[in-house]
């Protein structure tokens, strides 16, 4: 790998131990993936924010970095943490967990990272632009950044994204390069309803079918940000898709992409049903968890409209609405309605919270959550659209 004199100086420790450790990691990852150089990044988004996922080892790693004087060089945001900072008792969180979770957030803050914790940073103040190189670690967020906004990032790991944020650079390989952003398969979509839940099912079906690669969709109409985040989340969880294109819609597809000679995959009612059946493993539930990825203002308003004038009759089933603090603050009237049924939780989600200590059967409308809940949270899952899930508590 060819480093500039400035980069070599950081690697040699001239800016301190924290920057040196970060550069060592970025360079090591670059060598593994065959990168010839580093590239400047405009922003970072970091995973590894929940105490549940990083534990005491991650806490010590962050403490050592902060003690070494490490500071981020670019605007950087955090992924959801393991609890709502002000309402963790409502989530059945222990004081011990809460104390360590707050310490993790504080350590990130000391390194100059914004202490907003969301898997949808693009709905807040971390909005990527077409062609920008970034270092994002959350699987659905980075896919939205690549696909819907046309930015450029690989599927960074948590430590790698943090290291990139500190030095303001990442290794120049993979989806940073034009050659690797070309479609690898064409997805022909038919009998498609077009709801957000349909996009979740579609993403699950495509992720199951192709695993990895760059799908090019035909048969979809112009998509909203809610559709994009749901599609991205499902494909990243069911497979490992980090970039997708929609004919005539997404930034790079509008510029024209060559799909001649590519394999075609057809996705219709049969494939969507197979995706639906795979995620359903529970007939009854203890928790309904919505907001994976975090609910947008539009989704908050849609849910509140469904609930307005109704009452919660089933007291045996809890319901959580997960969103970012900024969206919760924007939607005060919607929050009032939703809070009559369950807490609107900020900066956390059911996947990175320690729900397995309280629940065993969780319902969700998210294919992403449907994939992760059994493995990360020991849950059986009911997978259904929001109107059907709300009937459980009405």
- Any idea of the CATH class of the largest domain? Alpha Beta
- Low-pLDDT sequence parts: none
Number of domains: 3
Q: Please work out how many helical segments DSSP would assign.
A: 15
In CATH, the architecture of the largest domain is: 2-Layer Sandwich
Along the chain, the helix and strand elements come as HHEEHEHEHHEEHEHEHEHEHEHHEEHEH
Going by helix content, strand content and strand pairing, the class is: alpha/beta
Strand order of the largest sheet: 12-11-10-13-14
Main sheet specs: 5 strands, parallel
Strand % is 5-15%
The CATH superfamily of the largest domain appears as: Aconitase, domain 3
The global form is: globular
Portion in helices: 40-55%
Instruction: Using the CA coordinates, give the radius of gyration.
Output: 21 Å
Query: Mean of residue pLDDT?
Result: 96
**Strands, count:** 14
Q: Alpha-carbon distance between the termini?
A: 60 Å
CATH topology of the largest domain: Aconitase, domain 3
What's a quick, concise take on this entry?
The chain has 15 helices and 14 strands. It has helices at 5-11, 17-32, 51-67, 95-110, 139-147, 158-167, 196-210, 225-238, 251-254, 269-279, 297-307, 325-330, 332-338, 367-376, 386-390; strands at residues 38-40, 44-46, 76-78, 135-136, 169-171, 185-189, 215-218, 245-246, 263-267, 287-290, 318-323, 344-346, 361-364, 380-383. A five-stranded parallel beta sheet has the order 12-11-10-13-14.
Task: Give a quick set of tags describing it.
globular; five-stranded parallel sheet; 3 domains; 14 strands; Aconitase, domain 3; alpha/beta; 394 residues
């Amino acid at each position: 790998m060819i480093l500039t004199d400035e980069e070599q100086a950081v690697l040699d420790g001239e800016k301190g131990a924290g920057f040196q450790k970060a550069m060592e990691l970025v360079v090591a990852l670059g060598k593994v993936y065959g990168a010839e150089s580093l590239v400047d990044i405009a922003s970072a988004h970091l995973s590894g924010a929940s105490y549940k996922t990083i534990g005491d080892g991650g806490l010590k790693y962050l403490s050592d970095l902060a003690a070494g004087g490490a500071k981020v060089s670019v605007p950087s945001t955090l992924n959801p943490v393991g609890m709502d900072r002000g309402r963790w008792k409502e989530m059945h969180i222990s004081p011990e967990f809460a104390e360590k979770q707050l310490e993790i957030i504080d350590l990130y803050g000391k390194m100059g990272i914004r202490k907003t914790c969301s898997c949808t940073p693009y709905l807040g103040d971390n909005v990527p632009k077409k062609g920008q190189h970034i270092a994002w670690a959350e699987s659905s967020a980075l896919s939205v950044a690549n696909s819907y906004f046309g930015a450029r990032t690989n599927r960074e790991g948590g430590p790698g994204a943090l290291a990139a944020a500190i030095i303001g650079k990442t290794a120049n390989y993979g989806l940073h390069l034009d050659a690797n952003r070309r479609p690898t398969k064409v997805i022909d979509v038919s009998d498609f309803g077009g709801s957000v839940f349909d996009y979740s099912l579609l993403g699950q079906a495509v992720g199951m079918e192709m695993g990895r690669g760059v799908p090019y969709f035909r048969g979809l109409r112009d998509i909203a940000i809610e559709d994009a985040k749901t599609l991205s989340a499902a494909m990243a969880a069911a497979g490992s898709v980090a970039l997708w294109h929609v004919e005539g819609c997404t930034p790079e597809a509008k510029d024209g992409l060559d799909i001649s000679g590519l394999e075609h995959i057809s996705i219709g009612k049969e494939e969507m049903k197979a995706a639906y059946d795979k995620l359903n493993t529970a007939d009854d539930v203890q928790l309904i968890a919505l907001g994976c990825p975090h609910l947008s203002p539009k989704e908050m308003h849609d849910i509140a409209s469904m609930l307005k004038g109704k009452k919660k009759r089933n007291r045996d089933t809890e319901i959580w609405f997960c969103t970012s603090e900024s969206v919760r603050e924007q939607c005060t009237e919607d929050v009032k309605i939703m809070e009559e049924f369950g807490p609107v939780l900020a900066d956390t989600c059911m996947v990175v919270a320690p729900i397995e200590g309280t629940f065993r059967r969780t319902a969700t409308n998210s294919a992403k959550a449907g994939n992760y809940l059994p493995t990360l949270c020991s849950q059986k899952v009911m997978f259904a659209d929001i109107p059907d899930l709300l009937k459980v508590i009405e």
